[in-house]
């Protein structure tokens, strides 16, 4: 239940960060969230899911505005994949960015320097 609540809070944060500051903000937000939650081992997974959901919401909102499905088919044809596979890859990008950045932040926050 706690992880679900985190995803529900983080997904809009990833969406708004992307709209406001671009795709690089996905990695920054993931890193910060990972560093702030050093006691939670599931932070990378939570950030990855949240970023994918946030970008999925952004993609759905964009689909209401214009022909996203047609664009996905055309772009997929350019790179040699089906349109739905292109959308899946589009959602994997923020998941990988946020998850790996959260893992780095989580690891660095819990790092203890031995004397």
The Rg value, from CA coordinates, equals 16 Å
* SS-based class: mainly alpha
Q: Order of SSEs, N→C?
A: HHHHH
Helix coverage percent: over 70%
% residues in beta strands: under 5%
Query: What summary fits the major beta sheet?
Result: none
- Which residues sit in consecutive blocks of at least 5 with pLDDT less than 50? none
Q: Average pLDDT across residues?
A: 90
What is the number of helical segments per DSSP (H or I, 4+ residues)?
A: 5
Shape: elongated
The total of beta strands comes to: 0
- How far the N terminus sits from the C terminus, by CA atoms, comes to 40 Å
Describe this structure in words.
With 115 residues, the chain is mainly alpha-helical. It has five helices and no strands. The protein has helices at 2-21, 24-36, 43-65, 68-79, 83-109.
Question: Main traits of this protein?
Answer:
115 residues, mainly alpha, 5 helices, 0% strand
Give the topology, please.
Blueprint: H1 2-21, H2 24-36, H3 43-65, H4 68-79, H5 83-109
How would you summarize this macromolecular structure in one to three sentences?
This protein is mainly α and 115 residues long.
